[in-house]
Amino acid sequence: PSPDILAGNAIRRLAIECKVTKDKKKYIPKQEIAQLEIFSRKFGAESWIGVKFLGEKWYFIMLEDLKDTGVSLSISLELAKLRGLTAEELIKIK
Questions:
Q1: What is the CA angle 32-37-39, rounded to 5?
Q2: Widest CA span in the chain
Q3: Is 44 left (phi over 0), alpha (psi -120 to 50) or beta?
Q4: Whole-angstrom distance between the N-terminal and C-terminal Cα of the chain?
Q5: Helix or strand or coil: residue 22?
Q6: 27-57: per-residue pLDDT in tens?
Q7: What is the rounded average pLDDT for all residues in the chain?
Q8: What is the pTM for the complete model shown?
């Protein structure tokens, strides 16, 4: 398992799985999230999902904010706007 983006500095490491969708909701298989968590734990990184909805900017969401649908986890555009961070906000968090 490996994330799409691995970034860090002396203080912080981020493992980010990126998704793009033309729909108003993105579904992610639970196995994919589990693999991201395994990698992040081994690497000592924070796990994030980056999602780009059509016509919108990138939003970065903590795994805890994903909604469990039973088979997969999901993030809606509405929830991403409410709980997600922009790239600028994500890199400013200490």
A1: 95
A2: 38
A3: left
A4: 26
A5: coil
A6: 999 999 999 999 999 999 999 999 999 999 9
A7: 94
A8: 0.91
CA–CA dist 8, 65 (Å, integer): 22
Please provide the size of the chain in residues.
94
Cβ-Cβ contacts under 8 Å for 14 (sequence gap 6 or more): 5, 6, 7, 8, 45, 46, 48, 90
Copy the structure tokens of residue 82: 């409410």
> What pLDDT does residue 10 have?
86
- pLDDT value of position 91: 85
- How are beta strands 58-62 and 5-8 bridged, if at all? unpaired
Closest by CA position to 52, among listed 11, 16, 13, 15: 16
Cα 35 to chain centroid, rounded = 13
Q: Shortest CA distance to 33 belongs to which of 12, 13, 52, 47?
A: 47
Look at the block and give the residue holding tokens 């990698």.
39
